[in-house]
UniProtKB/TrEMBL annotation:
CDD domains: TM_PBP2. It is found in: Cell membrane. Keywords: Cell membrane, Membrane, Transmembrane, Transmembrane helix, Transport. It comes from Planotetraspora silvatica. This is ABC transporter permease. Residues 66-253 form the ABC transmembrane type-1 domain. InterPro entries: Bact_Polyamine_Transport, MetI-like, MetI-like_sf. GO terms for biological process: transmembrane transport.
């Protein structure tokens, strides 16, 4: 009995330590967004202030970098969401020649080191004569995130009750109407989860973006470029807002899921 209790306490302590390890850097980021720093290096807390929230967009280069990252992430989410969902639907629903190879390629893309993929895409763009910049970043981000969407949607598709689709067709629904009214609503949680994952992977990517950016600067690249001269508090605030937006989406999703179950 005491040994089981000790193991249970140990597991609880370990869990809270892991949570603390994940939360502390976020808390520090949020805290230093309120730092009344007097110098270039925002590394020592010197007092509380809200002035940086009023000066959030004063650094034009940083603002443009954030806009670039958000646009790239949204485009990646939409393109990878659509293409990855179709791949996931095909792999989860049908058996066709080349399905095993396609699955292997997807998991290879997921497990591939970012530096390898970034260097490979950089070489590909040079070989094709494509000038690197905003479009090549979008292509690269879609390339590495599409597999995550496909795997997520595939897992959802494999749990579907096909009798619902058969019933819709028996009642006279066309193939398109069956997909639009029956299949898509059932797989939509997987599509949404995969698309949001693609957004998250895109907005904070540094390695692959660094290989394919050309003259375009994204939020992570801008931060890396100013680390030697000091990171302004606006970076912490933007990171805080991005984190808060993600947290809000997660909370809304949980609440909506509970309402559906009720």
């Amino acid at each position: 009995m005491s040994r089981g209790l000790f193991r249970g306490r140990g597991l609880q302590i370990y869990t809270w330590l892991v949570i603390a390890w994940l939360v502390v850097p976020i808390a520090v980021m949020i805290l230093f967004g309120f730092n009344d720093t007097k110098g270039r290096f925002n590394t020592t807390f010197q007092g509380f202030t809200l002035k940086w929230y009023g000066q959030l967009f004063e650094i034009d280069a940083l603002t443009q970098a954030l806009v670039n990252s958000l646009l790239i992430a949204v485009l990646t989410m939409v393109i990878a969401g659509v293409l990855g969902s179709l791949i996931g639907l095909a792999l989860g629903r049908y058996r066709f020649r080349g399905a095993a190879l396609l699955t292997l390629v997807m998991f290879a893309a997921i497990s591939c080191a970012e530096i390898v993929m970034g260097a490979s895409l950089h070489s590909l763009f040079i070989t094709l004569g494509l000038p690197e910049g905003f479009p090549t970043i979008v292509i690269a981000h879609v390339m590495f995130s599409i597999s995550f969407v496909a795997v997520t949607v595939r897992a959802r598709v494999m749990t579907l009750d096909t009798s619902l689709e058969e019933a819709a067709r028996d009642l006279g629904a066309s193939t398109w109407d069956t997909f639009r009214l029956v299949t898509l609503p059932m797989i939509f949680p997987g599509v949404l989860a995969g698309s949001m994952l693609a957004f998250a992977l895109s907005i904070d990517d540094f390695v692959i973006t660094n290989f394919t950016a050309g003259g375009t600067t994204t939020f992570p690249l801008w931060i890396w470029g100013v680390t030697r001269v000091g990171i302004p508090p606006q970076v912490n605030i933007m990171g805080t807002l991005i984190f808060a937006a993600g947290l809000l989406i997660a909370v809304v999703n949980i609440v909506a899921a509970r309402r559906r179950r009720a």
